[in-house]
Amino acid sequence: MSEKEEICEIVSSHFPCETIKNIRLPSKLGCDNIIYLIEFCSDTIIVFRRSLKIDSSKISSEFKLNSDDNGMPYFPMHRPGHQAWVLELLKNEQICPKLLALNSEKNYLIESYKSGQDLNEFSLEICKELGEFLHVLHSIKMNKFGYMSEQPGVGVYSSWLKMFEADFHNLTEDQYPLKEIYLSMVPYLTEFNNPVLVHADISSENIRVLNGHLNGVIDYGDCLCGDGLYDIGQFFLFAKAEWKYVDAIAQGYKLSNGAKSWTKSEKQCIRFYACYFALWLKSDNDIMEKLLMPITD
Predict the structure, then answer these.
(1) pLDDT tens digits, residue range 63-106?
(2) So what CATH class is 3-112?
(3) Any idea where the Aminoglycoside phosphotransferase domain is (predicted)?
(4) Order of strands, sheet of 99-103, starting from the edge strand that comes earlier in the sequence
(5) Which architecture does CATH list for 117-291?
(6) Range(s) for CATH 3.90.1200.10 in the chain?
(7) Can you tell me whether residue 11 is helix, strand or coil?
């Protein structure tokens, strides 16, 4: 039986009243999950996810399990069961896909499809709406820090600082400005003690836009336990270090407390997390120069 035939059989068992019209890969090809879009004759579309790296029933005390090749390592968060756990936490949020089926033994989950286009053109309104969703996401408390462990909701590190030590300690001499930013953040990273659920992959292909509004935030396979501003920092880099878009996020993120802008200390955190992603993604010099500019009050 081919993989597509197996998927047809699985999907039909969960949706016996539907007839499958088409099975296709989406525009986003994950490196930790294989993702198929299943279109029914009723025009309903669902998403079938399966982990690529490892038998999801395998148990390990390690926080990451290496694959057999030289590709990306496997993290417990990549498992369908872990991702289903996040979808259940967010089941009342219209922006989040709905969990439709889960079989951890057979290594798959099925979720609803969020229609729309990837976010390729920024608008202040969409940024505000993203801020409203991230406010909800970041209100979910976690335990410990960093990559999700075998136990959903529990990180693998005893401190948030551990997430960043190795990358910033190995900087070269010409990367000293980044090292300075890191060293200025060490006290904050050490003392941070309010870990929340972090998406950790806020990028164009995971933000769905429909009719000029935010219609979905998808793919929870990289969630972390940590600082919510980590997500804002990643978006800041994605927005080419343009503060106006991050400031628009604050309009939605801070609705409940009356403050509608980031404090200087929050901006320093956002800038640091953006630098972390820039280091990892090897961002171009123009963006790095913008990230290194002083933050004003």
Answers:
(1) 343 434 444 455 889 899 999 999 999 999 999 999 999 999 99
(2) alpha beta
(3) 86-254
(4) 20-24, 33-40, 45-51, 108-112, 99-103
(5) Alpha-Beta Complex (3.90)
(6) 117-291
(7) helix
